[in-house]
Prior knowledge:
The complex is a heterotetramer, with two copies of chain A and two copies of chain C. By secondary structure, chain A is of the alpha/beta class. Chain A has a single domain (about 10-305), classed as TIM Barrel (Alpha-Beta Barrel), CATH 3.20.20. Chain A contains nine helices and 16 strands. Chain A has helices at about 80-95, 105-115, 140-145, 145-160, 175-185, 225-235, 250-260, 270, 275-290; strands at about 10, 15, 20, 45, 60-65, 70, 95-100, 125-130, 165, 190, 195-200, 200, 205-210, 215-220, 240-245, 265. In chain A, the strands form four sheets. Chain A has an eight-stranded parallel barrel, surrounded by six helices. In chain A, strand 7 (about 95-100), helix 2 and strand 8 form a beta-alpha-beta unit. The longest helix of chain A is centred in the first third of the chain and has 15 residues, at about 80-95. By secondary structure, chain C is α/β, with parallel strands linked by helices. Chain C has three domains: about 1-100, Translation factors (Elongation Factor Tu (Ef-tu), domain 3, Beta Barrel), CATH 2.40.30.10; about 110-235, Rossmann fold (3-Layer(aba) Sandwich); about 235-280, Dihydroorotate dehydrogenase, electron transfer subunit (Dihydroorotate dehydrogenase B (pyrk subunit), domain 3). Chain C has helices at about 30, 80-85, 120-135, 145-150, 155-160, 180-190, 215-225, and strands at about 1-10, 20-25, 40, 55-60, 65, 70-75, 95-100, 110-115, 135-145, 165-170, 175, 205-210, 230-235, 250-255, 260-265, 270. In chain C, the strands form three sheets. Chain C has a seven-stranded antiparallel sheet. In chain C, strands 11-10-9-8-12-13-16 form a seven-stranded mixed sheet, sandwiched between helices. In chain C, helix 6 runs parallel beside helix 7 (about 215-225). Chain C starts with a strand and ends in a 10-residue tail after the last strand. The chains are: A alpha/beta, C alpha/beta. Chains in contact: A-B, A-C, B-D, C-D. The interface of A and B includes residues 219 and 227 of A. Bound molecules: flavin-adenine dinucleotide (2 copies), flavin mononucleotide (2 copies) and FE2/S2 (inorganic) cluster (2 copies). One FE2/S2 (inorganic) cluster binds next to loops of chain C.
Amino acid sequence: xxxxxxxxxxxxxxxxxxxxxxxxxxxxxxxxxxxxxxxxxxxxxxxxxxxxxxxxxxxxxxxxxxxxxxxxxxxxxxxxxxxxxxxxxxxxxxxxxxxxxxxxxxxxxxxxxxxxxxxxxxxxxxxxxxxxxxxxxxxxxxxxxxxxxxxxxxxxxxxxxxxxxxxxxxxxxxxxxxxxxxxxxxxxxxxxxxxxxxxxxxxxxxxxxxxxxxxxxxxxxxxxxxxxxxxxxxxxxxxxxxxxxxxxxxxxxxxxxxxxxxxxxxxxxxxxxxxxxxxxxxxxxxxxxxxxxxxxxxxxxxxxxx
Amino acid sequence: xxxxxxxxxxxxxxxxxxxxxxxxxxxxxxxxxxxxxxxxxxxxxxxxxxxxxxxxxxxxxxxxxxxxxxxxxxxxxxxxxxxxxxxxxxxxxxxxxxxxxxxxxxxxxxxxxxxxxxxxxxxxxxxxxxxxxxxxxxxxxxxxxxxxxxxxxxxxxxxxxxxxxxxxxxxxxxxxxxxxxxxxxxxxxxxxxxxxxxxxxxxxxxxxxxxxxxxxxxxxxxxxxxxxxxxxxxxxxxxxxxxxxxxxxxxxxxxxxxxxxxxxxxxxxxxxxxxxxxxxxxxxxxxxxxxxxxxxxxxxxxxxxx
Amino acid sequence: xxxxxxxxxxxxxxxxxxxxxxxxxxxxxxxxxxxxxxxxxxxxxxxxxxxxxxxxxxxxxxxxxxxxxxxxxxxxxxxxxxxxxxxxxxxxxxxxxxxxxxxxxxxxxxxxxxxxxxxxxxxxxxxxxxxxxxxxxxxxxxxxxxxxxxxxxxxxxxxxxxxxxxxxxxxxxxxxxxxxxxxxxxxxxxxxxxxxxxxxxxxxxxxxxxxxxxxxxxxxxxxxxxxxxxxxxxxxxxxxxxxxxxxxxxxxxxxxxxxxxxxxxxxxxxxxxxxxxxxxxx
Amino acid sequence: xxxxxxxxxxxxxxxxxxxxxxxxxxxxxxxxxxxxxxxxxxxxxxxxxxxxxxxxxxxxxxxxxxxxxxxxxxxxxxxxxxxxxxxxxxxxxxxxxxxxxxxxxxxxxxxxxxxxxxxxxxxxxxxxxxxxxxxxxxxxxxxxxxxxxxxxxxxxxxxxxxxxxxxxxxxxxxxxxxxxxxxxxxxxxxxxxxxxxxxxxxxxxxxxxxxxxxxxxxxxxxxxxxxxxxxxxxxxxxxxxxxxxxxxxxxxxxxxxxxxxxxxxxxxxxxxxxxxxxxxxx
Lengths: 306, 306, 282, 282
Ligand SMILES: Cc1cc2nc3c(=O)[nH]c(=O)nc-3n(C[C@H](O)[C@H](O)[C@H](O)COP(=O)(O)OP(=O)(O)OC[C@H]3O[C@@H](n4cnc5c(N)ncnc54)[C@H](O)[C@@H]3O)c2cc1C
Ligand SMILES: Cc1cc2nc3c(=O)[nH]c(=O)nc-3n(C[C@H](O)[C@H](O)[C@H](O)COP(=O)(O)OP(=O)(O)OC[C@H]3O[C@@H](n4cnc5c(N)ncnc54)[C@H](O)[C@@H]3O)c2cc1C
Ligand SMILES: Cc1cc2nc3c(=O)[nH]c(=O)nc-3n(C[C@H](O)[C@H](O)[C@H](O)COP(=O)(O)O)c2cc1C
Ligand SMILES: Cc1cc2nc3c(=O)[nH]c(=O)nc-3n(C[C@H](O)[C@H](O)[C@H](O)COP(=O)(O)O)c2cc1C
Ligand code: FES
Ligand code: FES
């Protein structure tokens, strides 16, 4: 029988398949509707929100690099209140698992949002972004200091009944230490990785190309770093991982699953091919069939055993 | 007058021009002789050496990634003694500034090599690699802990009269902190950056593609990270920087100079185009002419002033 | 909509040194598109996917022919993306997202003045065609570097529309020497005199403009002075092109003075000129 | 030497489903190259530089024609690099580094047996030509998947050399069914009997082999058993291709049992089979 079970379980949520989309690249779930039916996806992650509305950074916010993309959106978002009023009602109706993504500048910021987002909101989980490199104060601190990371995750866990996913920054010396901190804080799962801090200079203008000087590097260029971090964390920490960073093809997705990710998430890849998630789901299925696996869950971490 | 002065001064050494080649990618200086005359280069950096000979890691040691290259050579080298006997005599005759690169597994390792390498050896400078990510023990420690970094640089400085360049790892939370530590240790200059730790998985074999699992990521993919680190360190630390990471064209080189590098170094780019250093020297010259600069030194850090 | 466009024409537009290209694509987009909208083209060397460049390129629709299922894109080769695009051959399929964005809105009656700077003229051609189809009076103000540029960038096609043309070149080799805004200003003051006014009895004029930011800003200021409604077509670097990444925002200010961000790709690229905050920082 | 090669022939070799290509390049390399050496080809889509793939591809010289300044490369499309290479058109220039490596050494007199597995036959063709030019007796042992493969991969050209051919296929559609090593073993034992020996009075035979690692290892073991000198042409992933990066090492063991690393690109790709440590770990 060549029927493959694509469902996967992550932090207590059952996903239709292991393919999710990344925060900040998929808007609030409606923007790509013409390209990729939500009901086909394992889940989507919403744009990161903060307690208060933010206009974000000036343009230019985007710059291409070899096989990569720098962005300095700077967490532009409508703020918690408007999110609850204008967006959350739609989320309830979405035919897939919806993960909210929250960012903050203080412990209280995170707590305020986590308190407002509960199982009855229709969300499947809460992704706690402690890693956005675009915000001058706050973000980086939680993402690079294990003690703060533990504290913020614990504080979120204390006030929400939603499964909590800690999203970690790759801009650290020791990703395993950060993962362990999130685990101690009570995280139910980990998202790996956010963007690498980078920049480009416009050599004709002789100044940084991004208005904000620095930006987060995403896309295929960072994939080897992302796979390595997923691998290291999978070896050391017993939490499910959502792997991301440069996935554009099903082969990339399989690489993350073999490295130990339970699900994978597509960000920049959507910009290149808005049907990438669909093609990746098919590709993973085909790969399982070819290798005689009856469930995609059997793929997870397989490369560690060799 | 459109004549441009390409000479640059770095840690007390005058370089014919700011274009150097990276350690580990240019052998011991002779391998590329048919492709790129040494006398055209600002300098070359030799393959990293250790006190004892090393066979390095198993093959495969190389894997391509999008716009990048993973390597896990693992510091294969003939060891200090053979280096002194078989290679150093040739170095004396080389018509360019030659920088030796040393790696170690203990403070004593570094001291032993630094003691053996002095101004009278014909070398122009010593690059202390505290960042090689391929060695299971040792390397990473010096490269990621500021206190150890300071210690090892100070120990090297104490026993050699050669200008000392600290080569830093990008796999850290805070590159500025590491640069400051090297400065406290007495470094005369900094090399930024070594490779990012990454990996690839062979999805057919279902195991890591490199025999050593992890490798160092180099090439254009990492350039945005390298430029960012050069920029950050140039803002914070008053030491000349050799910028490297993904340089393949003169435009890339100019980007690093504008970010604050006094010289630049070409690694993986040589593999793509063994005449890249020559083309880059010409390109930098042309850029200076076009922008009315009489000396390449005027380019350094220019993008910070905008 | 994600769709393929079959390359049916891909040729040099005008003098080779202008590096302009005309690309006609057959596909379903023409059926639903309107002037001012754009497509996001995957620029890749044929069938082997590459990440270099990574992102699609937004290109405006310069002509829309629903009867023939064809859209025309006009572009200048200016960087890696367009250089690779320029290699697409007839018979190849290009991956397109589109039609994207909101496009221009046409007045019911009256006169439409198009004000173009350089290759900003391209999307205005589709607009001119729709406006003429609808029976509006159309006039083009167009400034460019020199005669060679204007002729290369489509002047003959504009002449074929038989509408009044006010041309300017920087070097005076064609039309008047100077900026397109000077001609616009001249014409506005001819009609309305030299002072600001809200004279609703004068002809119903609307302006649509596309070109360099500084020029569109100047056009907007002139129009605001004369109380002439103006639509501007903005450009910004794009990631997703569908409103999902917030890469391409512009800043608007409403009558109450409140600043907000809009997405050029989804809410634009066409905006009401009076609402645009031109210095972009907020 | 960094040089350009003008594509004068680029064609399908044999059946399309074998994905084999024949590429003839005109340039100075032919003047100095010898059999067993290789070139490092930049695989890029024409003039616009790309990092995808980043590295050059090493390809052996399958024919060297100094009189016409031509080298022939034969290759199989197996991945991104060769897929892009396959798009080079006649009249284009490819950037080449070469000739690289040390190549085979030919005996003065006697018989040269070539043992090829699959497309490992390609570099052996240039060797056969040199050996025949030098008046040596040449024999080919060649194993492949099936008849279609052998015919596609150049059997007619080998037949034209009028040398003895011992062919095997896995499915028995051409030559003997089985492995090429079985034929080699048969022939060796015919000549030397079934036991190990150092019989220097039997014909002076030398073996040169290229193919999958496991096959070359087996060939080497057979040769060592019969005290026949064997040269093997190794493959390893390459970075610089000139000995500067240490990416491509292989492990050798000398008579004293000392292990050392050699660079396949610079010290090889041809090595004495007896010296190769086949499991590669040290
Ligand atoms: C809505 C819209 C419509 C456009 N219509 C046209 C058109 O009809 N004809 C035409 O020639 N050009 C048009 N452009 C600009 C076109 O997208 C860029 O000129 C094109 O990307 C040129 O860059 P390149 O890819 O060759 O250069 P590269 O150097 O490869 O570009 C590098 C990056 O900068 C971005 N970029 C470069 N220039 C611009 C620009 N002016 N605006 C936005 N992003 C830019 C690219 O998209 C890319 O991400 C339009 C842009 C937008 C936003
Ligand atoms: C000395 C030498 C001579 C060769 N001669 C020939 C020849 O004459 N004909 C031919 O068809 N092939 C030859 N090869 C192999 C050829 O280089 C690879 O087959 C080719 O790189 C195929 O990979 P790709 O680029 O299409 O695949 P990709 O998937 O793009 O390759 C990915 C990476 O793996 C490397 N790689 C893949 N396969 C091999 C391999 N077998 N050996 C070494 N590296 C590999 C590539 O160089 C690249 O770095 C030779 C290899 C070496 C080392
Ligand atoms: C334009 C853009 C905006 C992003 N915004 C957010 C965000 O708001 N919150 C967050 O946690 N990650 C954000 N990210 C990071 C992505 O979710 C993802 O972790 C990263 O891009 C790596 O995946 P990729 O290479 O597939 O894009 C953003 C990325 C991009 C490209
Ligand atoms: C094959 C290879 C071997 C390397 N070996 C060394 C080494 O021995 N010592 C060292 O300090 N850096 C070593 N490096 C790192 C380079 O010197 C350089 O810092 C890095 O590759 C980034 O530059 P690039 O992107 O231009 O290659 C090596 C890099 C490569 C690709
Ligand atoms: S390009 Fe993504 S929101 Fe406009
Ligand atoms: S490929 Fe660099 S040493 Fe052989």
